[in-house]
Model the fold of this input.
Amino acid sequence: MTRRVSGNKRNPAKRDKTNKLKLSYKRKILYQDRSVEVVLISWPKGVMSNAHDHGQSMGVIQILDGKIIQEVYSKKTRRFLKRSFHNRGQIFFETPDIIHKMGNASNVKTAKTIHIYTPKLKMMVYADSQLKK
Done:
């Protein structure tokens, strides 16, 4: 299943008429069952996700191509914790106690990441005004 929906770089996620989240990146579910979800994401140059958590899911992400930026916030306090950059081949983890934003750190080329979540992903999106730098 591939989902490509539009947005823009300043406001990459919006809601459509059915209140479904619209994304400015391409998200393709490669595998899904009751306990795991594997997703391939293509990030156009300069695009960043909205702040979100992954519910109770644990996640592992590998950068397949490009350079990814990640900003991490505490889920409990909503305070900014760190900003990190990840290059091709690198792997990092997501835990249920964080909120984060991810995006393509390049303004030149598309980045690609593969994400594995367990249990199956349930996301909660946050407005920037709900976070504290």
User: Anything to note?
Assistant: The domain at 25-130 is CATH 2.60.120.10 (Jelly Rolls).
